[in-house]
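Holo prediction. Input below; ligand is adenosine-5'-diphosphate.
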Amino acid sequence: MLFLFLFIIIVYTVIYFVILNTQERELRNLVSQEAGYIETLLGKNNQSDLRGIQNQEVIFAGVDQSFYYVINSNREVVMGSEANPRLRPELLSFVYKHMSNDQDVQNEVIRMDEKLRKGRGGFRAPDQNQDIHMMIASHGVYYKGQYIGQIYIGKDVSFAYRLFHWVLVILIVLGFVFVGVAVFISLRMSKRAMVPIKSAFKRQREFVGDASHELRTPLSVLLSSVDAMDMTIDTQKDEMASKLLANMREEVKRMTNLVSDLLTLARSDSNTIELKKEEFDLRPLAEKAIESLHPIAASKQIQLGLNSTDIFTVIGDPQRLSQLIYILLDNAIKYTPDGGEVKLNLLKEGREVRIMVQDTGIGIKKEDYHKIFERFYRTDKSRSRQIGGHGLGLSIAKWIVETHKGTIQVTSVLGKGSTFIVKLPDYD
Ligand code: ADP
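Structure of the complex:
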Protein backbone atom coordinates (compact mmCIF):
# COMPACT_ATOMS: atom_id res chain seq x y z
CA MET A 1 0.00 0.00 0.00
CA LEU A 2 2.83 2.33 0.90
CA PHE A 3 4.58 1.55 -2.39
CA LEU A 4 1.36 2.07 -4.29
CA PHE A 5 0.88 5.42 -2.60
CA LEU A 6 4.48 6.42 -3.42
CA PHE A 7 4.03 5.22 -7.00
CA ILE A 8 0.91 7.42 -7.41
CA ILE A 9 2.74 10.46 -6.02
CA ILE A 10 5.80 9.88 -8.24
CA VAL A 11 3.78 9.29 -11.43
CA TYR A 12 1.64 12.35 -10.76
CA THR A 13 4.65 14.56 -10.01
CA VAL A 14 6.52 13.37 -13.13
CA ILE A 15 3.51 14.00 -15.38
CA TYR A 16 2.95 17.40 -13.76
CA PHE A 17 6.51 18.60 -14.26
CA VAL A 18 7.04 17.09 -17.71
CA ILE A 19 3.89 18.72 -19.14
CA LEU A 20 4.39 22.10 -17.47
CA ASN A 21 8.09 22.17 -18.40
CA THR A 22 7.35 21.41 -22.05
CA GLN A 23 4.78 24.20 -22.16
CA GLU A 24 7.13 26.58 -20.42
CA ARG A 25 10.02 25.77 -22.76
CA GLU A 26 7.87 26.32 -25.85
CA LEU A 27 6.58 29.64 -24.54
CA ARG A 28 10.05 30.82 -23.54
CA ASN A 29 11.38 30.04 -27.03
CA LEU A 30 8.48 31.85 -28.63
CA VAL A 31 8.81 34.99 -26.53
CA SER A 32 12.56 35.25 -27.11
CA GLN A 33 12.04 34.62 -30.83
CA GLU A 34 9.44 37.39 -30.99
CA ALA A 35 11.62 39.76 -28.96
CA GLY A 36 14.45 39.09 -31.41
CA TYR A 37 12.12 39.72 -34.32
CA ILE A 38 11.02 43.09 -32.87
CA GLU A 39 14.64 44.05 -32.21
CA THR A 40 15.56 43.23 -35.84
CA LEU A 41 12.61 45.29 -37.03
CA LEU A 42 13.70 48.25 -34.90
CA GLY A 43 17.23 47.97 -36.20
CA LYS A 44 16.08 47.77 -39.81
CA ASN A 45 13.91 50.87 -39.39
CA ASN A 46 16.48 52.65 -37.24
CA GLN A 47 13.84 53.14 -34.56
CA SER A 48 14.62 53.39 -30.88
CA ASP A 49 10.99 53.87 -29.96
CA LEU A 50 8.68 50.88 -29.96
CA ARG A 51 5.84 53.13 -31.15
CA GLY A 52 7.68 53.41 -34.45
CA ILE A 53 6.85 49.86 -35.39
CA GLN A 54 3.30 50.03 -34.09
CA ASN A 55 1.82 49.53 -37.51
CA GLN A 56 4.27 46.90 -38.67
CA GLU A 57 3.09 43.40 -39.06
CA VAL A 58 4.31 41.42 -36.15
CA ILE A 59 3.68 37.72 -36.55
CA PHE A 60 2.92 35.53 -33.61
CA ALA A 61 2.64 31.97 -34.60
CA GLY A 62 3.57 28.47 -33.59
CA VAL A 63 1.75 28.23 -30.26
CA ASP A 64 -1.90 28.80 -29.59
CA GLN A 65 -1.20 31.81 -27.49
CA SER A 66 -4.06 33.69 -25.86
CA PHE A 67 -2.58 37.15 -25.87
CA TYR A 68 0.53 39.16 -26.54
CA TYR A 69 1.41 42.64 -25.39
CA VAL A 70 4.39 44.80 -26.18
CA ILE A 71 4.87 47.42 -23.49
CA ASN A 72 7.36 50.27 -23.64
CA SER A 73 9.46 51.51 -20.78
CA ASN A 74 6.74 54.08 -19.90
CA ARG A 75 4.38 51.15 -19.22
CA GLU A 76 2.25 51.94 -22.24
CA VAL A 77 0.82 49.14 -24.37
CA VAL A 78 2.33 49.70 -27.78
CA MET A 79 0.99 46.61 -29.47
CA GLY A 80 -1.20 43.84 -28.29
CA SER A 81 -4.01 41.51 -28.99
CA GLU A 82 -5.96 38.90 -27.07
CA ALA A 83 -8.35 36.10 -27.95
CA ASN A 84 -10.95 37.56 -25.61
CA PRO A 85 -10.89 41.38 -25.41
CA ARG A 86 -13.05 41.32 -22.24
CA LEU A 87 -10.12 39.87 -20.38
CA ARG A 88 -7.70 42.71 -21.28
CA PRO A 89 -7.85 44.52 -17.89
CA GLU A 90 -7.28 41.26 -16.06
CA LEU A 91 -4.44 40.26 -18.33
CA LEU A 92 -2.79 43.65 -18.13
CA SER A 93 -2.94 43.54 -14.36
CA PHE A 94 -0.91 40.30 -14.46
CA VAL A 95 1.50 41.84 -16.90
CA TYR A 96 2.12 44.98 -14.83
CA LYS A 97 2.42 42.92 -11.67
CA HIS A 98 5.44 41.12 -13.08
CA MET A 99 7.05 43.85 -15.12
CA SER A 100 10.77 43.17 -15.31
CA ASN A 101 13.45 43.35 -17.96
CA ASP A 102 14.46 39.73 -17.55
CA GLN A 103 13.19 36.61 -19.12
CA ASP A 104 10.42 35.36 -16.93
CA VAL A 105 7.57 32.82 -16.88
CA GLN A 106 4.74 33.00 -14.43
CA ASN A 107 1.46 31.18 -13.90
CA GLU A 108 -1.76 33.01 -13.16
CA VAL A 109 -5.36 31.97 -12.73
CA ILE A 110 -8.29 33.94 -14.10
CA ARG A 111 -11.35 33.28 -11.97
CA MET A 112 -14.25 33.03 -14.36
CA ASP A 113 -16.89 35.10 -12.61
CA GLU A 114 -20.30 36.04 -14.02
CA LYS A 115 -18.99 39.26 -15.52
CA LEU A 116 -16.36 37.49 -17.58
CA ARG A 117 -18.61 34.64 -18.64
CA LYS A 118 -21.28 36.90 -20.08
CA GLY A 119 -21.10 38.46 -23.49
CA ARG A 120 -20.02 37.37 -26.92
CA GLY A 121 -16.68 36.10 -28.08
CA GLY A 122 -15.53 33.12 -26.08
CA PHE A 123 -12.12 32.89 -24.62
CA ARG A 124 -10.13 29.86 -25.67
CA ALA A 125 -11.24 27.70 -22.79
CA PRO A 126 -13.32 24.62 -23.59
CA ASP A 127 -15.50 25.00 -20.56
CA GLN A 128 -16.52 28.55 -19.75
CA ASN A 129 -17.39 27.62 -16.20
CA GLN A 130 -13.87 26.69 -15.32
CA ASP A 131 -11.10 29.02 -14.23
CA ILE A 132 -8.44 29.75 -16.79
CA HIS A 133 -4.85 28.84 -16.02
CA MET A 134 -2.61 31.23 -17.87
CA MET A 135 1.11 30.78 -18.43
CA ILE A 136 2.72 34.14 -19.17
CA ALA A 137 6.23 34.48 -20.58
CA SER A 138 8.01 37.81 -20.92
CA HIS A 139 11.22 39.03 -22.49
CA GLY A 140 12.97 42.39 -22.50
CA VAL A 141 13.27 44.31 -25.82
CA TYR A 142 16.57 46.12 -26.38
CA TYR A 143 17.70 48.68 -28.92
CA LYS A 144 21.47 48.94 -29.21
CA GLY A 145 21.86 47.39 -25.81
CA GLN A 146 19.38 49.73 -24.15
CA TYR A 147 16.18 48.43 -22.57
CA ILE A 148 13.16 49.92 -24.33
CA GLY A 149 10.29 47.67 -23.38
CA GLN A 150 8.96 44.23 -22.69
CA ILE A 151 7.04 41.64 -24.67
CA TYR A 152 4.53 39.34 -23.00
CA ILE A 153 2.95 36.25 -24.45
CA GLY A 154 0.26 34.33 -22.61
CA LYS A 155 -0.94 30.84 -23.21
CA ASP A 156 -3.98 29.11 -21.86
CA VAL A 157 -2.75 25.95 -20.12
CA SER A 158 -6.09 25.04 -18.52
CA PHE A 159 -6.10 21.79 -20.51
CA ALA A 160 -2.93 20.72 -18.66
CA TYR A 161 -4.53 21.38 -15.28
CA ARG A 162 -7.64 19.46 -16.32
CA LEU A 163 -5.36 16.66 -17.43
CA PHE A 164 -3.61 16.67 -14.02
CA HIS A 165 -6.98 16.53 -12.34
CA TRP A 166 -8.09 13.51 -14.37
CA VAL A 167 -4.73 11.78 -14.07
CA LEU A 168 -5.01 12.12 -10.29
CA VAL A 169 -8.58 10.79 -10.30
CA ILE A 170 -7.56 7.83 -12.50
CA LEU A 171 -4.50 7.09 -10.36
CA ILE A 172 -6.58 7.18 -7.16
CA VAL A 173 -9.25 4.90 -8.66
CA LEU A 174 -6.52 2.52 -9.89
CA GLY A 175 -4.95 2.68 -6.44
CA PHE A 176 -8.25 1.66 -4.81
CA VAL A 177 -8.73 -1.14 -7.35
CA PHE A 178 -5.21 -2.44 -6.69
CA VAL A 179 -5.69 -2.25 -2.92
CA GLY A 180 -8.98 -4.13 -3.26
CA VAL A 181 -7.39 -6.81 -5.43
CA ALA A 182 -4.37 -7.06 -3.10
CA VAL A 183 -6.61 -7.41 -0.01
CA PHE A 184 -8.74 -10.02 -1.77
CA ILE A 185 -5.72 -12.07 -2.89
CA SER A 186 -3.97 -11.81 0.47
CA LEU A 187 -7.14 -12.89 2.29
CA ARG A 188 -7.47 -15.93 0.03
CA MET A 189 -3.78 -16.76 0.37
CA SER A 190 -3.80 -16.35 4.14
CA LYS A 191 -6.90 -18.53 4.41
CA ARG A 192 -5.12 -21.22 2.41
CA ALA A 193 -1.97 -20.83 4.47
CA MET A 194 -4.01 -21.13 7.67
CA VAL A 195 -5.39 -24.57 6.72
CA PRO A 196 -2.21 -26.57 7.57
CA ILE A 197 -1.54 -24.37 10.61
CA LYS A 198 -5.07 -24.90 11.91
CA SER A 199 -4.93 -28.63 11.35
CA ALA A 200 -1.50 -28.84 13.03
CA PHE A 201 -2.89 -26.89 15.99
CA LYS A 202 -5.92 -29.17 16.12
CA ARG A 203 -3.69 -32.28 15.99
CA GLN A 204 -1.54 -30.85 18.77
CA ARG A 205 -4.59 -30.20 20.94
CA GLU A 206 -5.92 -33.66 20.24
CA PHE A 207 -2.54 -35.10 21.13
CA VAL A 208 -2.46 -33.32 24.51
CA GLY A 209 -6.04 -34.44 25.17
CA ASP A 210 -5.41 -38.04 24.13
CA ALA A 211 -2.07 -38.29 25.93
CA SER A 212 -3.58 -36.91 29.16
CA HIS A 213 -6.51 -39.26 28.85
CA GLU A 214 -4.26 -42.28 28.24
CA LEU A 215 -2.02 -41.35 31.18
CA ARG A 216 -4.84 -41.27 33.68
CA THR A 217 -5.38 -45.06 33.84
CA PRO A 218 -1.72 -46.08 34.39
CA LEU A 219 -1.40 -43.32 36.99
CA SER A 220 -4.40 -44.53 38.96
CA VAL A 221 -3.07 -48.13 38.72
CA LEU A 222 0.29 -46.84 39.98
CA LEU A 223 -1.36 -45.04 42.88
CA SER A 224 -3.37 -48.05 43.98
CA SER A 225 -0.23 -50.25 43.65
CA VAL A 226 1.69 -47.84 45.87
CA ASP A 227 -1.13 -47.95 48.41
CA ALA A 228 -1.18 -51.76 48.26
CA MET A 229 2.59 -51.96 48.72
CA ASP A 230 2.38 -49.53 51.63
CA MET A 231 -0.04 -51.84 53.33
CA THR A 232 2.17 -54.91 52.87
CA ILE A 233 5.42 -53.52 54.24
CA ASP A 234 6.25 -53.19 57.88
CA THR A 235 6.72 -49.45 58.28
CA GLN A 236 8.51 -49.85 61.59
CA LYS A 237 11.09 -52.22 60.19
CA ASP A 238 11.52 -50.82 56.73
CA GLU A 239 11.62 -47.10 57.31
CA MET A 240 13.49 -46.43 54.10
CA ALA A 241 10.96 -48.30 51.92
CA SER A 242 8.09 -46.51 53.63
CA LYS A 243 9.70 -43.11 52.96
CA LEU A 244 10.25 -44.00 49.32
CA LEU A 245 6.63 -45.11 48.98
CA ALA A 246 5.40 -41.87 50.54
CA ASN A 247 7.49 -39.89 48.03
CA MET A 248 6.17 -42.02 45.19
CA ARG A 249 2.60 -41.43 46.28
CA GLU A 250 3.19 -37.68 46.40
CA GLU A 251 4.72 -37.63 42.92
CA VAL A 252 2.02 -39.82 41.43
CA LYS A 253 -0.64 -37.54 42.96
CA ARG A 254 1.08 -34.50 41.49
CA MET A 255 1.25 -36.13 38.10
CA THR A 256 -2.39 -37.13 38.31
CA ASN A 257 -3.33 -33.54 39.09
CA LEU A 258 -1.22 -32.22 36.22
CA VAL A 259 -2.68 -34.73 33.79
CA SER A 260 -6.21 -33.92 34.89
CA ASP A 261 -5.53 -30.14 34.50
CA LEU A 262 -4.04 -30.69 31.04
CA LEU A 263 -7.04 -32.75 30.05
CA THR A 264 -9.44 -30.06 31.29
CA LEU A 265 -7.63 -27.36 29.28
CA ALA A 266 -7.35 -29.55 26.15
CA ARG A 267 -11.08 -30.22 26.32
CA SER A 268 -11.86 -26.56 26.96
CA ASP A 269 -9.81 -25.68 23.84
CA SER A 270 -11.76 -28.09 21.70
CA ASN A 271 -15.07 -27.04 23.28
CA THR A 272 -15.90 -30.59 24.20
CA ILE A 273 -16.87 -29.81 27.77
CA GLU A 274 -20.53 -29.13 28.23
CA LEU A 275 -21.24 -26.96 31.23
CA LYS A 276 -24.47 -27.32 33.15
CA LYS A 277 -26.60 -24.30 33.83
CA GLU A 278 -28.64 -24.97 36.92
CA GLU A 279 -29.76 -23.12 40.00
CA PHE A 280 -28.11 -24.45 43.15
CA ASP A 281 -26.85 -23.49 46.59
CA LEU A 282 -23.11 -22.83 46.46
CA ARG A 283 -22.64 -22.71 50.23
CA PRO A 284 -22.50 -26.51 50.86
CA LEU A 285 -19.99 -26.89 48.02
CA ALA A 286 -17.85 -24.08 49.49
CA GLU A 287 -18.01 -25.75 52.92
CA LYS A 288 -16.95 -29.05 51.38
CA ALA A 289 -13.94 -27.41 49.69
CA ILE A 290 -12.93 -25.81 52.98
CA GLU A 291 -13.32 -29.08 54.77
CA SER A 292 -11.17 -30.99 52.34
CA LEU A 293 -8.45 -28.32 52.41
CA HIS A 294 -8.60 -28.01 56.18
CA PRO A 295 -5.85 -30.58 56.90
CA ILE A 296 -3.35 -28.76 54.63
CA ALA A 297 -4.27 -25.40 56.17
CA ALA A 298 -4.03 -26.84 59.67
CA SER A 299 -0.56 -28.25 58.91
CA LYS A 300 0.50 -24.63 58.31
CA GLN A 301 -1.57 -23.19 61.19
CA ILE A 302 -3.56 -21.20 58.66
CA GLN A 303 -7.02 -20.06 59.73
CA LEU A 304 -9.52 -20.97 57.05
CA GLY A 305 -12.87 -19.17 57.15
CA LEU A 306 -16.10 -18.87 55.20
CA ASN A 307 -18.36 -15.85 55.08
CA SER A 308 -21.68 -16.45 53.36
CA THR A 309 -25.41 -16.22 53.77
CA ASP A 310 -27.12 -19.46 54.89
CA ILE A 311 -28.29 -20.13 51.40
CA PHE A 312 -26.26 -18.77 48.53
CA THR A 313 -28.11 -19.52 45.33
CA VAL A 314 -26.28 -19.20 42.03
CA ILE A 315 -26.86 -20.37 38.48
CA GLY A 316 -24.13 -22.31 36.74
CA ASP A 317 -22.24 -25.58 36.73
CA PRO A 318 -21.91 -26.86 40.35
CA GLN A 319 -18.91 -29.07 39.66
CA ARG A 320 -16.94 -26.34 37.84
CA LEU A 321 -17.78 -23.58 40.34
CA SER A 322 -16.74 -25.86 43.16
CA GLN A 323 -13.48 -26.57 41.25
CA LEU A 324 -12.98 -22.79 40.91
CA ILE A 325 -13.31 -22.28 44.67
CA TYR A 326 -11.00 -25.19 45.27
CA ILE A 327 -8.29 -23.75 42.97
CA LEU A 328 -8.45 -20.29 44.59
CA LEU A 329 -8.43 -21.65 48.15
CA ASP A 330 -5.65 -24.12 47.35
CA ASN A 331 -3.49 -21.30 45.93
CA ALA A 332 -4.28 -19.02 48.86
CA ILE A 333 -3.13 -21.72 51.31
CA LYS A 334 -0.08 -22.60 49.15
CA TYR A 335 1.16 -19.02 48.93
CA THR A 336 0.42 -18.00 52.55
CA PRO A 337 3.15 -18.50 55.14
CA ASP A 338 2.49 -20.45 58.35
CA GLY A 339 0.12 -18.81 60.80
CA GLY A 340 -1.69 -16.76 58.16
CA GLU A 341 -5.33 -16.40 57.32
CA VAL A 342 -7.44 -17.38 54.30
CA LYS A 343 -11.03 -16.26 53.92
CA LEU A 344 -13.70 -17.20 51.39
CA ASN A 345 -16.49 -14.65 50.99
CA LEU A 346 -19.63 -15.32 49.02
CA LEU A 347 -21.49 -12.07 48.37
CA LYS A 348 -24.27 -10.66 46.27
CA GLU A 349 -23.78 -7.11 45.00
CA GLY A 350 -26.78 -5.82 43.14
CA ARG A 351 -27.30 -8.19 40.23
CA GLU A 352 -23.87 -9.71 40.64
CA VAL A 353 -22.53 -12.78 42.43
CA ARG A 354 -19.09 -12.32 43.99
CA ILE A 355 -16.74 -15.04 45.09
CA MET A 356 -13.80 -13.51 46.95
CA VAL A 357 -10.76 -15.35 48.27
CA GLN A 358 -8.56 -13.26 50.57
CA ASP A 359 -5.23 -14.33 51.99
CA THR A 360 -2.41 -12.87 54.07
CA GLY A 361 0.20 -14.47 51.79
CA ILE A 362 3.28 -13.44 49.85
CA GLY A 363 1.34 -11.22 47.43
CA ILE A 364 1.72 -10.70 43.68
CA LYS A 365 3.56 -7.95 41.79
CA LYS A 366 1.36 -5.63 39.74
CA GLU A 367 3.10 -6.58 36.49
CA ASP A 368 2.16 -10.22 37.14
CA TYR A 369 -1.59 -9.58 37.64
CA HIS A 370 -2.41 -10.64 34.07
CA LYS A 371 0.40 -13.12 33.53
CA ILE A 372 -0.63 -15.44 36.37
CA PHE A 373 -3.73 -16.43 34.36
CA GLU A 374 -1.55 -17.66 31.47
CA ARG A 375 -0.81 -21.36 31.15
CA PHE A 376 2.32 -22.57 32.95
CA TYR A 377 3.11 -19.08 34.28
CA ARG A 378 4.49 -19.03 37.79
CA THR A 379 5.92 -15.91 39.42
CA ASP A 380 8.57 -17.95 41.17
CA LYS A 381 9.12 -21.24 39.33
CA SER A 382 11.33 -23.00 41.86
CA ARG A 383 9.14 -22.01 44.82
CA SER A 384 5.96 -22.99 42.99
CA ARG A 385 7.39 -26.37 41.94
CA GLN A 386 8.50 -27.00 45.50
CA ILE A 387 5.00 -26.52 46.83
CA GLY A 388 3.45 -28.58 44.06
CA GLY A 389 2.31 -25.95 41.54
CA HIS A 390 2.57 -26.33 37.81
CA GLY A 391 0.97 -23.08 36.66
CA LEU A 392 -2.34 -24.37 35.29
CA GLY A 393 -4.74 -23.73 38.19
CA LEU A 394 -5.54 -20.09 37.42
CA SER A 395 -5.85 -20.80 33.64
CA ILE A 396 -8.56 -23.31 34.50
CA ALA A 397 -10.13 -20.84 36.96
CA LYS A 398 -10.20 -18.19 34.23
CA TRP A 399 -11.76 -20.61 31.76
CA ILE A 400 -14.48 -21.58 34.28
CA VAL A 401 -15.25 -17.91 35.01
CA GLU A 402 -15.36 -16.96 31.34
CA THR A 403 -17.65 -19.83 30.41
CA HIS A 404 -19.98 -18.48 33.11
CA LYS A 405 -19.70 -15.06 31.40
CA GLY A 406 -17.97 -13.58 34.44
CA THR A 407 -14.67 -11.90 35.24
CA ILE A 408 -11.77 -12.71 37.53
CA GLN A 409 -9.45 -10.08 38.98
CA VAL A 410 -6.69 -9.91 41.52
CA THR A 411 -5.53 -7.15 43.83
CA SER A 412 -2.52 -7.61 45.99
CA VAL A 413 0.05 -5.98 48.24
CA LEU A 414 3.46 -7.64 48.15
CA GLY A 415 4.22 -9.35 51.44
CA LYS A 416 0.76 -8.58 52.83
CA GLY A 417 -1.65 -10.72 50.82
CA SER A 418 -3.86 -11.06 47.78
CA THR A 419 -7.56 -11.00 47.00
CA PHE A 420 -9.03 -12.84 44.02
CA ILE A 421 -12.45 -11.49 43.04
CA VAL A 422 -14.74 -13.48 40.77
CA LYS A 423 -17.82 -11.66 39.46
CA LEU A 424 -20.58 -13.69 37.89
CA PRO A 425 -23.76 -12.31 36.40
CA ASP A 426 -26.86 -13.13 38.40
CA TYR A 427 -29.30 -14.74 36.02
CA ASP A 428 -32.32 -14.27 38.36
P1 ADP B 1 0.32 -22.95 40.48
O1 ADP B 1 -0.07 -24.34 40.30
O2 ADP B 1 1.77 -22.67 40.21
O3 ADP B 1 -0.19 -22.36 41.73
P2 ADP B 1 -1.62 -21.23 39.25
O4 ADP B 1 -2.01 -21.07 37.84
O5 ADP B 1 -2.67 -21.62 40.21
O6 ADP B 1 -0.41 -22.22 39.26
O7 ADP B 1 -1.00 -19.87 39.73
C1 ADP B 1 -0.05 -19.23 38.91
C2 ADP B 1 0.90 -18.40 39.75
O8 ADP B 1 0.20 -17.32 40.36
C3 ADP B 1 1.49 -19.15 40.91
O9 ADP B 1 2.64 -19.88 40.50
C4 ADP B 1 1.83 -18.05 41.89
O10 ADP B 1 3.07 -17.49 41.54
C5 ADP B 1 0.74 -17.03 41.63
N1 ADP B 1 -0.34 -17.10 42.62
C6 ADP B 1 -1.54 -17.69 42.47
N2 ADP B 1 -2.30 -17.52 43.55
C7 ADP B 1 -1.57 -16.79 44.43
C8 ADP B 1 -1.81 -16.27 45.76
N3 ADP B 1 -2.95 -16.48 46.39
N4 ADP B 1 -0.82 -15.56 46.32
C9 ADP B 1 0.33 -15.33 45.69
N5 ADP B 1 0.62 -15.79 44.45
C10 ADP B 1 -0.32 -16.51 43.82
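The pocket of adenosine-5'-diphosphate is lined by residues 331-332, 334-335, 359, 361-362, 364, 372, 377-380, 384, 389-395, 418 (CB under 6 Å). That is the main takeaway for now.
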